[in-house]
Amino acid sequence: MGSKDLNVTKMNASYSLNEMLIYFLKLGTWGFGGPVALIGYMHRDLVEKRKWISDEAYKEGLALAQLAPGPLAAQLSIYLGYVHYGIPGATLVDFAFVIPSFIMVVAIGFAYEKFGGLPWMQSIFYGVGAAVIGIILVSSYKLTTKSLGKDFWLWGVFLVLAVTTYIMESEILWLILGAGILIWFVKAPPRFIPKASFMSVPLLFQLSDIVSSSSKLSQIAWFFTKAGAFVFGSGLAIVPFLYGGVVNEYHWLNEQQFMDAVAVAMITPGPIVITVGFIGYLVAGFPGACVAALATFVPCYLFTIIPAPYFKKYGKHPGIKAFVEGVTAAAVGAIAGAVLILGRRTLTDMPTIIMALTTTGILFKFKKLPEPFIIAVAATVGLLLKTIL
Q1: Are 235 and 273 in contact (CB under 8 A)?
Q2: Is the dihedral of CA 226, 227, 233, 239 positive or negative?
Q3: What's the rounded Cα separation, in Å, for the pair 209 and 148?
């Protein structure tokens, strides 16, 4: 989109950029429920009620957000900011949407470090951790059934990634990218193989030896850049990748701290991926939180604004669609494997098992029950159980 086109779309906008920024500040502050809920709020408020964004533009943004790696809701917000106000709009909307939840997770990180050794803090996360397993289990089930349908190839990819993630206790990026290429070749075989583009991928991974250094902030920057650049699917898709790096590879957090980080993502509004700010804070204080959040969100920002002008023309290409289907199936499989890993380590006694199963049953029975309410109840139950026991 050139400057001339941007001026035209700007003139056609029925709202000011300030109004859009205020809306996303509010959504980032009160928008609970995860990516599916957040993108639903955007359609309801911006397309149906206020009519700021056309339904066609919304669908284009949603398709691009599903195609590119990174957090779904954050990418859609970036695109909607781009529609009438170009790169400045996309940049400011992204910041407005993310900053409220970032402030919250940093504040929770501060309290967690300051009071984490106290029994009441451990008791709260005892209940919350079990509830989180139930929430992720239900979310994983919904993602699986919605993404795979009855496609034999996609189910095969799903099972391979679920098993390998569980056995290796880490998300394997090569398998995810390979799944995309496999489904691309199966469903929409290319006429030629662009060797140069594929050669760039291994070169990127080789950079890890160059970029990594003794500086913890440098390690944080490189790891979370990979998280933002290579994780497809919903915000939950980042969980197995983070687990493999934060717990197994770098040993920055133990398993309980990681589960607490996932719980923090569930109890705060905004994109689930903002938990990287909490993790960064535990690893290296406020600078670590800033570096982790910036490194995670910059790739998804670039993956949105760079192809935005061209997506309408090329986004429906059969090869691109097939690649995305394969990567999505792999990401969903990795989530399923991560659920098994986290469940094995979190559900260590009968009370936690009962809480996880109860959470799962409640979410299947009452589909509109807000997850923060369940987390609050689980925290109370955990506190009571630890006090009694």
Answers
A1: yes
A2: positive
A3: 36
First to last CA, the chain: 63
In angstroms, how far is CA 1 from the centroid of its own chain?
28
The whole-angstrom distance between residue 373's C-alpha and the CA centroid of its chain comes to 21
Backbone CA torsion sign across 162, 168, 173, 174: negative
Phi-psi domain of 149 (left: phi exceeds 0; alpha: psi -120 through 50; beta: other): left
Alpha-carbon distance 72 to 304, whole Å? Answer: 11
Q: Which residues of 179-204 are buried (b: 16+ CB within 10 A; e: fewer)?
A: bbbbbbeebeeeeeeeeeeeeeeeee
Burial class for 274, CB neighbours closer than 10 Å (0-12, 13-18, 19+) = buried
CA atoms within a 13 Å half-sphere pointing along the CA-CB vector of 128: 27
Distances (CA, A) of 354 to 122, 131, 387: 18, 10, 18
Residue range 65-101, pLDDT digits in tens: 877 778 888 999 999 999 999 999 999 999 999 999 9
Distance of alpha carbon 223 from alpha carbon 246, whole angstroms: 9
Query: pLDDT digits over 140-174, tens only?
Result: 787 688 778 888 999 999 999 899 988 887 667 78
Cα separation, 8 vs 13, whole angstroms: 9
Q: CA–CA separation, 40 vs 67, rounded Å?
A: 18
Three-state SS for 226?
Answer: helix
Q: What is the value of pTM for the model shown?
A: 0.70
